[in-house]
């Protein structure tokens, strides 16, 4: 294999994403008011054997129903940062087009579809990725950005393969608001078999200047069966959509800040813009595949 080809394969490290946060966003510390709802480990009456996570899971299920019912497609800027093998990567910014799966009478009438255009950092600027559920033998198509790598041809990749997944926590198939909520429900249901959890609903948070409600889940004690120490989900009050998810590991020493495991923020969301097959077609003349 030529050295140019090897370089091209190594450089496809950021072609999949799950969500994220802008530099302007990161400069803003969320502002909170007093918790409006709290669930902790206090004993519950025997007649109501609810787990502390139940209200959060119920809230997420309602959100998932709302997304599947009301959101056909959307455009957004996604900012992500992930810790891979102990190393926290740089922020990546992507303009995204997402079309949610539509099902009628048990049949998929509109496949889940994703287009990504990387905005920064400079190392990935100009990279494009497109993937359509059930099409192209399940593969995504991608090319690098400008400079030397931008002259290399586009390639078809297995989204679960070694190249596409190198340096990524999740494949492109897992991107998007609907998948984010579904995974939160899955994590919540799995953690329900254990105790040692605190759940807060907090009004008055702000993300990118927009009013949000913060849903916070905390595992005070580090256990092998828990994925994180603290997880925060920000729900936009007006759109009723999750716009940021961040998870933290347990602090390495007393008094230290908990290290970030992964964070995904969605900004400038515009829903039901009328995306079509052409928006997810690599032959689209507006793209550079």
Described by strand count, sense and barrel closure, the largest sheet is: 13 strands, antiparallel
Structural class: alpha+beta
Q: How many individual β-strands?
A: 15
Multimeric organization: single chain
Broad shape: globular
Please state the CA-atom Rg, rounded to the nearest Å. Answer: 20 Å
Mean pLDDT: 85
**Amino-to-carboxy terminus distance:** 22 Å
Number of continuous helical runs: 5
**What are the secondary-structure elements, in order, as H or E?**
HHEHEEEEEEEEEHHEEEEE
What ranges have pLDDT less than 50 throughout 5 or more consecutive residues?
1-47
- Helix content range: 10-25%
Strand content: 25-35%
Structure commentary:
This protein has 289 residues and is an alpha+beta fold. The protein is built from five helices and 15 strands. The protein has helices spanning 3-11, 23-26, 54-70, 162-165, 177-191, and strands at 35-39, 73-84, 87-88, 92-99, 102-104, 107-110, 113-120, 128-132, 140-143, 155-157, 198-207, 210-218, 230-236, 241-248, 260-271. Strands 1, 2, 3, 4, 7, 8, 9, 10, 11, 12, 13, 14 and 15 form a 13-stranded antiparallel β-sheet that branches. Strands 5-6 form a two-stranded antiparallel ribbon. It is globular, with a radius of gyration of 20 Å.
Write the layout of secondary structure elements.
Layout: H1 3-11, H2 23-26, E1 35-39, H3 54-70, E2 73-84, E3 87-88, E4 92-99, E5 102-104, E6 107-110, E7 113-120, E8 128-132, E9 140-143, E10 155-157, H4 162-165, H5 177-191, E11 198-207, E12 210-218, E13 230-236, E14 241-248, E15 260-271
Antiparallel strand pairs: 1-11, 2-3, 2-4, 2-15, 4-7, 5-6, 7-8, 8-9, 9-10, 11-12, 12-13, 13-14, 14-15
Helix pairs in contact: 3-5
